[in-house]
Design a protein that fits this description.
The structure holds two protein chains of two kinds.
Chain A lengths: L10 H10 L2 H15 L6 H39 L2 H4 L3 E2 L4 E2 L2 H32 L3 H16 L2 H22 L9 H25 L3 H9 L4 H30 L2 H6 L17 H8 L6 H36 L1
Helix pairs in contact in A: 3-13, 5-8, 5-10, 6-8, 7-8, 8-10, 9-10, 10-13, 12-13
Chain B lengths: L2 H29 L7 E6 L4 H15 L2 E5 L3 H9 L5 E4 L5 H7 L3 E15 L8 E2 L1 H9 L8 H6 L11 E5 L4 H13 L1 H6 L12 E3 L1 H9 L5 E6 H6 L6 E3 L5 E2 L3 H6 L25 E9 L9 H15 L16 H12 L2 E2 L2 E2 L3
Parallel strand pairs in B: 1-2, 1-3, 5-9, 6-7, 6-8
Antiparallel strand pairs in B: 3-11, 4-8, 4-11, 9-10, 12-13
Helix pairs in contact in B: 3-4, 12-13
The chains are: A mainly alpha, B alpha/beta.
């Protein structure tokens, strides 16, 4: 005779469940078991739930399209006036009504890519450090929380720190190198931005690296590979697509960052000539000039800058996704 | 999770959600004020915001009328006035012809106070320098690039100027300060007028941009050999060194509240849409300007009640008379007598359904 415990369910079954789950999960499983035994078929609540999920998913898509459309509609006066030339125009003259986005596109790309290059060195190292060497324990917990704290610092604070701490250092460097002692410019903004975007790629990288199956690593170790070789030839290739996804996330953040960049970039509406020159980014110009802009063409040109930023981000994301898929497929 | 944890989550979660809901509802409801006091809404220039803040606070205590002013920038103020979402706008720049056309009804420019733009620089020893109009223009055009340039030392014979590059600092954001400064430069330099022009945002031929007065100061203070322009009030409050400027009558004037008010000691047009830069006034500081409150001449629009329009007119009258007392303690230059007279005429011309509201 089967021993029946609480709820008329066999003790054996309960023991099995109890071993595997905590008590609220256990109660849930018992309830489901009872329900199925009683012959219940899923009904209204399941399809209702599914409908809510569909609505939520569609809503996000609709929202994205709405944002894009509102940008396009508000840019129409500028698009009609300048056409494609807007993307290549080098003058930004609100007085004369001549607007061109090229200096800002270059500034944005220059700053973001440089920041990405600098931050990837650190975030990759951190990912390996936390994913491979110090997986658990106090060190990992401490460093992980510090990295997450970095992500939580408001961008204005980064701007202030850049302005008060980093700019004098860069200025001293420029004086030593006999370059114009601005202190602000591409280098400074890239450095500030690099620190800001480390957490995004570091945390994702850490996750994927720690998820590399130990069988693969142990196989390599047992055949005589060194730790560094295992990381380079087994762990990183396996985690490649995930790491790249994290880097892409960081780049997306860097492209759109406004406040921290606008405080240390020098706000010069010319195409930057070198790493020490001041420049301007799309987001920074919009933030600076939008409140005081009057006149339909001026406002519409600023919105078109926003549209350009939106498109640049989208293109880079699509490009990145393609690369990630290629990387993922290469393993299979 | 043990039983205790489960009960805490089960009980606590509901309570927490309930609290959040109550909090949100109370925030939403609390936002809708009582309709007891009459409320006037304005938006616009950030330059006079501290003064307006004080004025409206004093006014509220005396007359129980609440005035809500949002410092969103002159451009924003003009836009809000055109879309008729505010009762009045604040602007350091006069409305352009395009703006006036969009407004489709006459807009009055009532001056409330004056401000000045000063040149602040970073040189060892903080020498007191004098500038002439053409030198200022050429510095900001990038044509004069060294401090010991002959033209600067000619004006400042007693000062030893270093062989250092001039780093120009301007505003990165649109601003009335830039408007006044560029308006001045456009008047005194034909090249500036042609190459750059006048406006709250410009295509600067040289230099770095800082956001707001603090941004410019933040770049001038630590950068040796830099020069930038800030509001007089900002320079006074932050004890920044600034130079004297030669005015139209040939006098090197120091920017003070008195010399800013004196800049309005000239022939003022009736509609007060006048730029005070490069003023004729003998004692006036040449880089000065009014800041205006913009109101529609005809107040019966967007279903505005006559009572509200009356309150607005009364507010304007107060701001240009008793309210002026608040200007000097806050380092704003009060309106000169002539300016007040013209303002009075403008305020008296505000109508409701065609009838002037104040005699």
């Amino acid at each position: 005779m089967i021993e029946k415990g609480r709820d008329n369910v066999s003790v054996e079954l309960r023991q099995q469940l109890g071993l595997l789950t905590d008590s609220s999960m256990e109660d849930f499983l018992v309830r489901i078991h009872r329900r199925t035994m009683a012959g219940w078929k899923f009904g209204l609540s399941e399809s209702f739930f599914r409908k809510i999920l569909y609505v939520a998913g569609t809503f996000v898509l609709v929202l994205l399209i709405a944002i894009f459309l509102s940008l396009v509609v508000a840019s129409i006066p500028a698009i009609r006036h300048f056409g494609v030339g807007f993307l290549f125009g080098t003058t930004w003259d609100p007085v004369r009504g001549e607007f061109g986005a090229l200096p800002f596109v270059m500034g944005t790309l220059f700053v973001s890519l440089l920041a990405l290059a600098i931050s990837t060195v650190f975030s990759l190292s951190i990912s390996i450090f936390l994913g491979e060497y110090f997986r658990g324990g106090a060190v990992s917990a401490f460093i992980t929380s510090v990295i997450e704290l970095l992500a939580g610092i408001p961008s204005v604070i980064y701007g202030f720190c850049g302005l008060f701490l980093l700019v004098p250092v860069v200025r001293a460097l420029e004086i030593k190198l006999n370059v114009a002692p601005y202190g602000v410019g591409i280098l400074t903004s890239s450095l500030v931005l690099a620190v800001m975007i480390i957490p995004y790629s570091a945390s994702i990288g850490r996750e994927v690296i720690s998820l590399v199956p130990s069988d693969l690593k142990e196989a390599a170790f047992s055949l005589g590979a060194t730790r560094f070789e295992v990381i380079r030839k087994v762990v990183l290739p396996y985690a490649r697509s995930g790491i790249f996804a994290g880097i892409l996330l960081s780049l997306g953040r860097a492209l759109g960052e406004t406040m921290a960049v606008t405080m240390v970039i020098g706000n010069s509406n010319f195409i930057p000539k070198g790493i020490f020159s001041p420049a301007n980014t799309l987001a920074s110009v919009i933030a600076n000039e939008f409140t005081e802009a009057t006149g339909q063409l001026y406002l519409s040109s600023l919105v078109e800058l926003g549209l350009v930023l939106f498109m640049v981000t989208t293109v880079i994301n699509i490009f990145g996704k393609v690369i990630i898929r290629r990387m993922g497929m290469g393993d299979k | 999770m043990n039983n205790f944890g489960k009960s805490l989550l089960g009980l606590g979660m509901k309570k927490v959600l309930g609290l959040i809901t109550i909090l949100l509802i109370s925030i939403v409801l609390g936002g809708t004020g009582h309709a007891k006091d009459i409320e006037l809404i304005g938006a616009g220039a950030t330059f006079p915001y501290p003064l307006y803040s004080k004025m409206f606070d004093v006014y509220n205590k005396e007359y129980a009328v609440k005035v809500n002013y949002q410092a969103i920038g002159s451009g924003g103020g003009i836009r809000q006035l055109i879309s008729k979402t505010v009762d009045f706008g604040g602007s350091d720049a006069m409305m352009s012809d395009k703006d006036l056309a969009e407004a489709s009804a006459p807009v009055l420019h009532v001056p409330t106070c004056a401000g000045a733009v000063v040149l602040t620089y970073n040189l060892t020893g903080d020498p007191r320098l004098g500038f002439t109009p053409d030198v200022i223009a050429d510095i900001f055009l990038g044509k004069i690039s060294k401090w010991n340039d002959r033209r600067i030392s000619a004006i400042n014979p007693g000062v030893k100027l270093p062989d250092m590059n001039i780093t120009v600092v301007h505003r990165s954001d649109g601003s009335g300060t830039t408007f006044i400064f560029s308006d001045y430069l456009g008047k005194v330099s034909a090249e500036w007028k042609e190459k750059v022009g006048t406006g709250p945002s410009l295509n600067w031929p040289a230099g770095l941009g800082g956001k707001g007065n603090p941004g410019v100061a933040g770049l001038v203070k630590p950068t040796p050999g830099s020069i930038g322009y800030v509001e007089l009030i900002y320079a006074l409050q932050n004890k920044m060194p600034y130079g004297m400027v030669k005015n139209k009558k040939g006098k090197f004037v120091d920017a003070t509240l008195a010399s800013t008010s004196k800049a309005a000691d000239t022939n003022l047009p009736d509609d007060m849409k006048v730029s005070l830069t490069d003023t004729d006034a003998p004692e006036g500081y040449p880089i000065s300007g009014f800041t205006w409150i913009l109101v529609y001449k005809e107040q019966n629009y967007a279903e505005k009640s006559e009572g509200k329009a009356k309150e607005l007119v009364h507010l304007l009258w107060w701001m240009t008379h008793e309210g002026q007392k608040n200007a000097e303690p806050l380092e704003y230059a009060p309106l000169s007598k002539k300016a007040v007279e013209k303002a009075e005429k403008l305020i008296k011309s505000v109508t409701y359904n065609g009838k002037p509201m104040m005699k």
